[in-house]
Amino acid sequence: MRKRSKSAKEEWPNLFGLDAEITRASAPRNFLKLFYPYHYSVGMAVEKHMTGDDLDRHQAVILWIIHTKGDKGRSLARKTIEALIGDWYELGSPAITKALRKLASPPLRLIAIEESASSGREKMVRLTDAGAARIKQMIRSTEAFIKTISDRLTDDEIQAGTAFMDRVGTIMEVDLKD
């Protein structure tokens, strides 16, 4: 990790029009100035590395939801997937069904859609072995991309940035959840 001798203010151009002194009072304005560039520049680049060449963003999110929220990271009720992906994207049931079918069909075959053992009306979505392998590949690819970013940061910047993103995520998921 390389150390910086100059402060960020001295070293980097002010691309986003941030206030020179970032304070609690200027935080909302500065956060807003960063939100869209960050969301689209960083978020879309990370998403690109997760999707690879053969998945769309909705399919990648479905796989990620199963991996992070599913039973042992392998299976999840379809209705849960629908609720969670609805939090990320404004997708209706037909679009989700289409994405699930593509993930289950050749050539991908990354998921299997099965009837629930507890309800004939409910469907369970399970990662196939190919799906579990794809998740591992998505993680490796995305971590390698993120490493190209973190290699340009100091340890203090990594710690502060990660703590900040974790805290903002917790506020959104717990404190401000509808």
Provide tags for this entry:
mainly alpha, 61% helix, 3-stranded antiparallel sheet, elongated, single chain, 178 residues, disordered N terminus, Arc Repressor Mutant, subunit A
Explained architecture:
This protein has 178 residues and is mostly helical. It has a domain at 46-145: Winged helix-like DNA-binding domain superfamily/Winged helix DNA-binding domain (Arc Repressor Mutant, subunit A), CATH 1.10.10.10. The protein is 61% helix and 7% strand. It has helices at residues 8-11, 27-51, 57-69, 78-88, 93-104, 129-150, 155-175; strands at 75-77, 111-115, 123-127. Strand 2 and strand 3 (123-127) form a beta hairpin. Helix 2 packs across helix 6 (129-150). The radius of gyration is 20 Å and the shape is elongated. 13% of the residues are buried.
What percentage of residues falls in helices of 4 or more residues? 55-70%
Enumerate the strands of the largest sheet in spatial order, edge to edge or round the barrel. Answer: 1-3-2
| Unreliable segments of 5+ consecutive residues | 1-6
Name of the CATH homologous superfamily of the domain at 46-145: Winged helix-like DNA-binding domain superfamily/Winged helix DNA-binding domain
The beta-strand count equals 3
Q: At CATH's second level, what is the architecture of the domain at 46-145?
A: Orthogonal Bundle
Given helix and strand content, the structural type is mainly alpha
Overall pLDDT: 88
